[in-house]
């Protein structure tokens, strides 16, 4: 009642029936394999399918042999990210409204097709796959927690306000901020949102529709044994942070603390840039990547 009252007072459209009609939907996790590990992650409208698509593409490459954050291993990881994000941003949405071609995107045939168009020594071109976008700014208003109890039960949970303090509104004396999650929808096809994600018609705003989210709480198993419980904050960088933590631990034998704390990089199809944290790449690696045609942004 407090939220509806505040909404109506300020010209909003929320009604009590919106809250009365809301239902939680429980969906089966997405499952894929990376090396000999089983990855369980969030189905649409979450982005676990994108985590799995990136990992499935990388499954064929010997990243360990090429070396941690070598130009070659980064090149193939970035190209996997580029293509998986292009699929995510144009095809995925609320399963109650649109068909999500998950089986096709994760099928061996499709993954082989994606690998076949990745050049061995040249950067891909996002512009040929869509419109150019301006640089993104990461927002830190998402909370993730991973819990394992003494019996080995694991929970991976991500919650979010979306933007900086969400909608910047507290209704009455409720004491919590309202989110601005509508921005996770495609407000207009071909136009970027606050994270500079350009998305398609599948995620266009509609009544009773859930927005496509980057949130991808993930659990990794080896056989029947728990290996990792993962998640992140940071809009679309959630997806690439989870992927890199998995690569760090599985391919490069790092413990989870090191795997999480290492500087990261990010590619989301558009804009056509590799975003990198300070000290993520050596000067030599940056030189090689630029020669391959990549644009880097700190």
Task: Write a structural description.
With 298 residues, the chain is α+β, with helices and mostly antiparallel strands. Helix content is 31%, strand content 14%. The chain has helices spanning 2-9, 16-21, 48-58, 63-66, 71-91, 102-105, 108-116, 237-250, 256-261, 283-291; strands at residues 30-34, 37-41, 142-148, 154-160, 218-222, 225-230, 265-266, 274-276, 296-297. A four-stranded antiparallel β-sheet has the order 1-2-5-6, with helices on one face. Helix 10 links the parallel strand 8 and strand 9. Helix 3 (48-58) crosses helix 8 (237-250). The radius of gyration is 20 Å and the shape is globular.
**Rg over alpha carbons:** 20 Å
Query: Based on CA inertia axes, which overall geometry fits?
Result: globular
Number of discrete helical segments: 10
Please describe the biggest sheet, giving its number of strands, its sense, and whether it closes into a barrel.
4 strands, antiparallel
Average pLDDT figure: 93
**Per DSSP, what share of the residues sits in E-state strands of 2 or more residues?**
5-15%
Helix and strand content put the structural class at alpha+beta
Tell me how many strands there are.
9
Task: Looking at this protein, list some descriptive labels.
31% helix; alpha+beta; 298 residues; 10 helices
Blueprint (SSEs and pairs):
Layout lengths: L1 H8 L6 H6 L8 E5 L2 E5 L6 H11 L4 H4 L4 H21 L10 H4 L2 H9 L25 E7 L5 E7 L57 E5 L2 E6 L6 H14 L5 H6 L3 E2 L7 E3 L6 H9 L4 E2 L1
Parallel strand pairs: 8-9
Antiparallel strand pairs: 1-2, 2-5, 3-4, 5-6, 7-8
Helix pairs in contact: 3-5, 3-8
């Amino acid at each position: 009642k407090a939220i509806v009252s505040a909404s109506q007072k300020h010209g909003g459209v929320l009604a009590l029936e919106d809250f009365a009609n809301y239902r939680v939907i429980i969906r089966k996790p997405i499952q894929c394999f990376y090396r000999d590990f089983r990855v369980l992650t969030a189905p649409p409208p979450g982005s676990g399918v994108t985590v799995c698509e990136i990992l499935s593409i990388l499954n064929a490459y010997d990243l360990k042999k090429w070396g941690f954050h070598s130009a070659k291993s980064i090149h193939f990881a970035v190209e996997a990210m580029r293509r998986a994000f292009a699929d995510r941003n144009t095809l995925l949405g609320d399963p109650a409204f649109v068909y999500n071609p998950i089986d096709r995107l994760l099928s061996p045939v499709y993954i082989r097709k994606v690998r076949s168009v990745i050049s061995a020594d040249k950067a891909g071109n996002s512009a040929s796959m869509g419109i150019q976008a301006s640089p993104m700014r990461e927002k830190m208003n998402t909370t993730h927690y991973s819990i394992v109890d003494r019996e080995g039960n694991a929970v991976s949970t991500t919650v979010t306000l979306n933007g900086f303090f969400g909608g910047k509104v507290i209704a009455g004396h409720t004491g919590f901020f309202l989110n601005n999650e509508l921005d996770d929808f495609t407000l207009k096809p071909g136009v970027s949102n606050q994270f500079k994600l350009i998305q398609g018609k599948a995620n266009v705003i509609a009544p009773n529709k859930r927005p496509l989210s980057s949130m991808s709480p993930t659990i990794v198993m080896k056989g029947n044994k728990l290996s990792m419980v993962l998640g992140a904050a940071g809009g679309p960088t959630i997806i690439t942070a989870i992927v890199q933590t998995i690569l760090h631990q599985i391919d490069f034998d790092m413990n989870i603390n090191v795997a999480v704390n290492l500087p990261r990089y990010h590619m989301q199809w558009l804009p056509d840039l590799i975003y990198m944290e300070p000290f993520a790449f050596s000067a030599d690696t940056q030189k090689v990547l630029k020669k391959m045609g990549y644009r880097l942004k700190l």
